[in-house]
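Supplementary Text 2. Reproducibility record for the structural model of the 97-residue chain.

All settings were left at their defaults, and a single model was retained for analysis rather than an ensemble. We include the record here because the model underlies the residue-level annotations in Supplementary Table 4.
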Amino acid sequence: MGQEKWDFPKLDYYINDGIHTGSRLLSDKRDYSQEMRYRIFREDDHLHVFIWRGPYSFEKSEMLFQNDFPLDNDGLQAAHDWIISQYEKLKAGWTSD
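Retained model, structure tokens:
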């Protein structure tokens, strides 16, 4: 299986108070309870990243992971790399409830 494509906004999106959310299925089934969801947003001079298990919204879910990154291009790349690595770890160890 080839590497999956991820699309993330550029830094100016977050500087201008954009909030980016996304999701990836953890299994081959189209079952949205079996997905990893994420949210990236700016607060002051940091990017906040939250990861949770679907299918519910950010406000209605328990967070699995969260991390903060500097609000610069290096921090943005680190945030994207962290999301992808968390997805790979979750997918590798996935078992449905």
